[in-house]
């Protein structure tokens, strides 16, 4: 590693806001720190959050961050964002330290088992979690980090600002992005609305990958995942319980929690673009409540071990999904009609 300008540097007065998704809320806090007025919901849409996939051969619901979309986002800001796979650790940390020493926040993707400040992460399945790094002390072996969406054992979202071991960051780093932004204007209201309509329509109407029919896309991915929550009818109690708990995590935290919140936010902020936006928001709140009831039901049947409830569990989930689909198309169609009147 080449010479580091400072052995210790902490960016002063970093304030973070709690979000509803670790990646989008982290990006929001970076934008906010740099004076760029974009909400977490708007960033979700701009950064391809509607790109949801279900892999039927692996029974996995995936909302992977897409690097090509992030790169395009960087071009709009006249800057560069480098996502690297984390293999060249020496080069990664040179760039991270350099960026922080210039008072720029850094985005990190860390394997959850190395996030030593929260036991919930270490007890969960292995995945990448996004946090911010705003300082380091090489001699003490500490990183100063901020977690904008940290779950506790009850599933409540909290924030964390404090330290974690630099050694654990080095072990767990999967990707990082260094931002050098100051007050750039990203997108107009009209441009955002046009992009929203296009991407939301794609989310609703594209059903499967053209090159791989085992991959379902967008809203259809959610429906297919619910149809296949359970791997087989003849499953043991442990498999049944795990399938229910996986469904809660994948649907609630992977998709539904932030998708509902983001759509409500967009309908509020861009209310003039819709006919009767308040009615649509009311419908979304009812839908969100239905999903919460479903997750509670999944939890109950998981711990009761009542495998005979599998078919009923799928049926209930699909009914809510169909209700969701009707509301989503209503949002799309009323927005399109309003846009045509302008």
Largest sheet: 6 strands, antiparallel
Mean pLDDT: 86
Unreliable runs: none
Number of helices: 11
Say how many strands there are: 9
Q: Taking Cα atoms only, what radius of gyration do you get, to the nearest Å?
A: 21 Å
**Span between termini:** 57 Å
> How are helices and strands ordered from N to C?
EHHEEHHEHEEEHEHEHHHH
Q: Which descriptor suits the 3D outline?
A: globular
Question: How would you characterize the overall build of this protein?
Answer:
- There is one protein chain.
- This protein has 342 residues and is α+β, with helices and mostly antiparallel strands.
- It folds into 2 domains: 8-36 and 77-178; 189-341.
- It contains 11 helices and 9 strands.
- Strands 1, 4, 5, 6, 7 and 8 form a 6-stranded antiparallel sheet that branches. Strands 3-2-9 form a 3-stranded antiparallel sheet.
- Helix 2 (40-46) packs across helix 9, helix 7 (189-205) runs antiparallel to helix 11 and helix 8 packs antiparallel against helix 11 (310-341).
- The longest helix is centred in the C-terminal third of the chain and has 33 residues, at 237-269.
Name the descriptors.
six-stranded antiparallel sheet, three-stranded antiparallel sheet, 11 helices, 51% helix, globular
What is shown here, in short?
This protein has two domains: 8-36 and 77-178; 189-341. With 342 residues, it is an alpha+beta fold. Helices cover 51% and strands 15% of the residues.
């Amino acid at each position: 590693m080449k010479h580091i300008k400072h052995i210790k540097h902490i960016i002063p007065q970093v304030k973070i806001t709690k979000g509803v998704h670790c990646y989008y809320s982290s990006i929001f806090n970076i934008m906010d720190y740099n004076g760029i007025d974009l909400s977490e919901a708007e960033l979700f849409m701009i950064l391809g959050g509607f790109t949801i996939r279900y892999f039927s051969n692996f029974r996995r619901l995936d909302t992977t961050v897409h690097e090509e979309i992030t790169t395009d986002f960087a071009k709009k800001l006249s800057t560069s964002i480098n996502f690297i796979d984390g293999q060249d650790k020496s080069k990664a940390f040179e760039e991270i330290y350099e960026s922080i020493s210039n008072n720029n926040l850094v985005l990190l993707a860390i394997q959850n088992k190395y996030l030593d400040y929260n036991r919930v992460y270490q007890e969960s399945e292995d995945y990448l979690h996004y946090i911010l790094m705003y300082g380091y002390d090489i001699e003490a072996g500490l990183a100063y980090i901020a977690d904008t969406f940290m779950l506790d054992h009850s599933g409540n979202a909290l924030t964390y600002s404090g330290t974690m071991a630099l050694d654990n960051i080095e072990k767990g780093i999967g990707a990082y992005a260094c931002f050098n932004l100051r007050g750039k204007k990203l997108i107009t209201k009209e441009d955002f609305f046009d992009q929203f309509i296009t991407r939301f329509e794609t989310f609703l109407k594209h059903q499967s990958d053209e090159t791989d029919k085992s991959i379902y896309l967008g809203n259809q991915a959610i429906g297919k995942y619910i149809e296949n929550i359970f791997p087989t009818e003849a499953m043991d109690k442990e498999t049944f319980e795990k399938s229910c708990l996986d469904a809660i995590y994948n649907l609630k935290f992977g998709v539904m929690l932030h998708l509902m919140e983001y759509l409500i936010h967009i309908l509020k902020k861009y209310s003039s673009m819709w006919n009767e936006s308040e009615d649509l928001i009311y419908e979304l709140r009812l839908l969100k409540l239905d999903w919460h009831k479903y997750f509670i039901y999944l939890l109950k049947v998981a711990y009761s071990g009542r495998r005979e409830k599998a078919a009923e569990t799928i049926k209930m989930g699909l009914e809510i999904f169909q209700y969701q689909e009707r509301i989503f198309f209503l949002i799309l169609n009323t927005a399109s009609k309003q846009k045509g009147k302008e």
